[in-house]
Amino acid sequence: MPTDARTDRELLLEIIDRLQRLEVRVLTPRREAVDPLRVSSKQASKLLGVSTRTIRSYRSQGLLVPLPRVKGTARNAVVFFDPANVAALAQSEDHAREWVARRKYVPIAKRSRG
Length: 114
Description:
Strand content: under 5%
Number of strands: 2
Largest sheet: 2 strands, antiparallel
Number of helices: 5
Strand order of the largest sheet: 1-2
Oligomer: single chain
Shape: elongated
Helix content: 40-55%
């Protein structure tokens, strides 16, 4: 028998060790992807667990505020929302209203007299 031959016990221990390392890799949660800069209606519906029709309803109620469209974009183009707006609505409607209210207040700079 060659000297480098391993016993069944050694092979079994090596297999168990490899399985444990694989298990750690599989069960360790992966880091989330970078937060998107915008969320489409379809993505928002999946995140909130509602239909796209409900997303349109939230939009008409003012709970979700669409991001401005690029000039020249078709009217039926995909509508995008701020991810923070969607996250606020995921917490509650009150959080969404507060988020919208904070975004609507933009201080106006004093106009200079020319």
